[in-house]
Amino acid sequence: MARSSSLAILVIALSAILQATAAQTTHVVGDELGWLVPPGGPIAYSTWAAMQTFTVGDVLVFNFTTGEQDVAMVTREAYETCNSTNPISLQTTGPANLTLDSIREYYFIGTIDQHCSLGQKLAINVSAPGPRPSPVPAPPRGPITYNVGDDLGWLVPPAGPLAYETWAFNKTFLLGDTLVFNFINGTQDVAVVTKEAYETCDTNNTITVLTTSPANITLTTTGEHFFTSTYARHCDLGQKLAINVTASTSTSNPPSSSTEPPSSGSNPVSEGPSAAPPPSLVSSAPSPLIGGFFITLFSLAMAFF
Ligand SMILES: *[C@@H]1O[C@H](CO)[C@@H](O)[C@H](O)[C@H]1NC(C)=O
Ligand SMILES: *[C@@H]1O[C@H](CO)[C@@H](O)[C@H](O)[C@H]1NC(C)=O
Ligand SMILES: *[C@@H]1O[C@H](CO)[C@@H](O)[C@H](O)[C@H]1NC(C)=O
Ligand SMILES: *[C@@H]1O[C@H](CO)[C@@H](O)[C@H](O)[C@H]1NC(C)=O
Ligand SMILES: *[C@@H]1O[C@H](CO)[C@@H](O)[C@H](O)[C@H]1NC(C)=O
Ligand SMILES: *[C@@H]1O[C@H](CO)[C@@H](O)[C@H](O)[C@H]1NC(C)=O
Ligand SMILES: *[C@@H]1O[C@H](CO)[C@@H](O)[C@H](O)[C@H]1NC(C)=O
Ligand SMILES: *[C@@H]1O[C@H](CO)[C@@H](O)[C@H](O)[C@H]1NC(C)=O
Ligand SMILES: *[C@@H]1O[C@H](CO)[C@@H](O)[C@H](O)[C@H]1NC(C)=O
């Protein structure tokens, strides 16, 4: 009786460990875009990379047409200067797969013609295996005032629509936060629109239009909010912003991965004051897990003999 439930615990503990360490993700670089000279410049791959978590054992797939593209692993310096002399390795057949086998930064460039300087370059950070750093639980916080686009302000972004998408993507918008649109009076405006009008850039259909800068909008309802401009073609050229507003309570985080080990000790990682930046996650996360596992194993062994 005691023996079989101990065994059950052992099995559960083991499978938790295996799931946590052996989970291997395949990342297709750029997703549907594939690996090429990105239309929007280097921001395409840096935005893509920022949305991934790379863990030792994961596989990168560079999806490209053989003969039209290639991929070289290079040093940081060569990445920055787009120097394709003496790469660490070069793959000329697409799609090219690469297993990320160590904890470090990896740098990749295309070596054909000016591909690298035109934006075919990727830099990533690979972290230790273990429980995936779940999105850091948002600490309770007061209202934030966001300057839309930061220094860019609110205009037709030189880099195209990705600019405001990139600006918004890692931000949390809570009820009570304020958006400030900064622009030059008479050259821009802010149109609050429906999702449909946002997607089709139909600026005949606006909910509200704000014409003086700074235009402040306090977020008072949850859900998606869409902004663009009534000026001709501004929306088509990328002056558009979509955000998701969540309630200010802590219910905003969906239940994260269920592979939390049944550890007896408390886990300092998930509860810490999360204002601090997360570098410590990488180095400290696996050890309490492994330690807890061996302690469990040891006490099970004691129970048997
Ligand atoms: C997230 O946003 C901050 C500014 O709020 C920025 O400094 C940082 O680079 C962004 N992180 C990613 C991964 O894009
Ligand atoms: C690679 O690109 C081709 C053409 O776009 C696509 O059909 C294929 O599904 C892609 N492969 C992967 C692994 O994404
Ligand atoms: C490119 O790298 C090679 C060797 O890695 C070096 O000899 C060369 O000077 C570099 N070229 C430039 C322009 O930095
Ligand atoms: C590369 O990875 C893709 C996606 O996982 C897989 O379909 C393909 O067989 C792999 N190719 C090689 C040569 O390993
Ligand atoms: C990797 O992470 C380190 C430390 O957080 C950071 O300084 C560096 O810029 C990152 N590199 C890349 C390529 O994201
Ligand atoms: C917006 O209104 C103008 C003038 O009424 C019209 O010419 C144009 O087709 C309309 N645009 C859309 C997307 O409905
Ligand atoms: C825009 O116009 C408003 C109202 O006239 C004024 O208060 C504001 O300072 C102007 N903003 C800029 C950036 O010129
Ligand atoms: C809009 O927000 C800016 C920046 O927080 C602030 O300086 C300004 O007073 C606000 N304007 C109004 C009308 O609330
Ligand atoms: C808002 O969140 C929903 C559900 O997570 C998602 O489907 C949608 O694409 C998000 N919209 C924006 C503008 O980020």
From TrEMBL:
Protein origin, superkingdom = Eukaryota
Recorded hits in Gene3D superfamilies, A to Z, give: Cupredoxins - blue copper proteins
Write the signal peptide boundaries. Answer: 1-23
GO cellular-component term (any): plasma membrane
**Pfam families recorded:** Cu_bind_like (PF02298)
Name the encoding gene, please: LOC110411371
Ranges of compositional bias, category Low complexity: 248-268
Residues crossing the lipid bilayer are none
Q: Which PANTHER family match?
A: BLUE COPPER PROTEIN (PTHR33021), PHYTOCYANIN DOMAIN-CONTAINING PROTEIN (PTHR33021:SF325)
Q: Name one GO molecular function term.
A: electron transfer activity
- Give the residue ranges for region: Disordered: 248-281
Q: What keywords are assigned to this protein?
A: Disulfide bond, Glycoprotein, Signal
Ranges for domain Phytocyanin = 25-128, 144-247
Which PROSITE patterns does the UniProt record give? PHYTOCYANIN (PS51485)
Its name, as the record gives it, is Blue copper protein-like
